[in-house]
Design goal:
It is built from 5 helices and no strands. The chain has about 130 residues and is mainly α. The chain is elongated. The chain starts with 12 loop residues before the first helix and ends with a helix. Bound molecules: fe (ii) ion (2 copies). One fe (ii) ion binds near residues 78 and 122.
């Protein structure tokens, strides 16, 4: 469903591999949304969001280290975007998920829209900018 296109590659092996993993996580989110068998998806949502939080923490740290090394001029702005992503994920209320299984698909759909647009816009517009410096 979501996959890395040739134009998304930065040429930095670690960062590209991490972006591939983030696309996989977007696909897992998509699959979870279209899973009509599981009635209560709370555990899977918690698992997926935790994985996203942990994985992006490592990925963002790699990018930030790279940007500092090349003394990237727009470091602060890029750093702030990474923090906004983390805030958005940490805003997901796990307790509310358990209490309201009927609202879970809305949470997943929201997460998916956010992820899909982040992956495309942030990678294409922002990540590719610092590798071209
Ligand atoms: Fe990235
Ligand atoms: Fe980034």
């Amino acid at each position: 469903m979501y996959e890395m296109k040739p134009e998304y590659y930065t040429g930095i092996a670690d960062i590209d591999a991490e972006h591939e993993r983030l696309f996989e996580l977007a696909n897992e989110t998509h699959e979870l949304l279209h899973n009509y068998v599981t009635m209560d998806k709370a555990d899977q949502i918690v698992h997926l969001v935790s994985e996203l939080i942990n994985y992006t923490r490592v990925h963002f740290a790699h990018e930030e280290e790279y940007m500092r090394r090349i003394q990237y001029a727009d470091y602060e702005e890029h750093y702030a975007q990474h923090r906004q992503f983390e805030i958005k994920l940490s805003d997901i209320d796990f307790d509310a998920l358990e209490a309201d299984p009927a609202g879970q698909d809305d949470v997943i759909e929201n997460l998916l829209e956010f992820l899909a647009s982040w992956l495309v816009h942030h990678i294409l517009k922002e990540d590719l900018r610092f590798v071209q410096k």
